[in-house]
Amino acid sequence: MVSMASMLTQLQTKLAQASQYMAKHGGARYKQLLEQNKQYIQEPPTIEKCQMLANELFYTRLASIPGRYESFWKEVDYIKYLFKNRQEMKLENAGIGVLFGLECLTWFYVGEIVGRGFTLTGYHV
């Protein structure tokens, strides 16, 4: 079993390597990233401009809620229709629905495990 001290030493080594890499290549990578994405940069790049864009994003998303709400209820109505007429449903569509449900359930369980710190029982060893 690996001791905590050796794990801490390994972590410190990895952090030192990452820090050295960023010190050596970080500036060039930063400039390259900005150059590749310059079409997304708003001028002037100030705090006020960033705040204005954050407000635009927030209120645009807020304004999109009624449309998303309507789309949600259309989907619910379609599911109700499918259940009402399930005799006409093809096996392929039912299989896709079951697989989608299993995928959602799996992501829920994975999220729960991650939320508990990657433990299956909830207790840390």
TrEMBL record:
GO biological process: proton motive force-driven ATP synthesis
Subcellular location: Mitochondrion membrane
Gene name of the record: LOC108982896
Protein name: Uncharacterized protein LOC108982896 isoform X1
Main location: mitochondrion
Top-rank taxon, per record: Eukaryota
Record-annotated membrane-spanning stretches: none
Alphabetized UniProt keyword annotations: ATP synthesis, CF(0), Hydrogen ion transport, Ion transport, Membrane, Mitochondrion, Transport
InterPro entries (alphabetical): ATP_synth_F0_gsu_mt
This protein's record includes keyword Secreted: no
Keyword Membrane recorded: yes
MF GO annotations: proton transmembrane transporter activity
GO CC, alphabetical: mitochondrial membrane; proton-transporting ATP synthase complex
Family as reported in the entry's similarity comment: Belongs to the ATPase g subunit family.
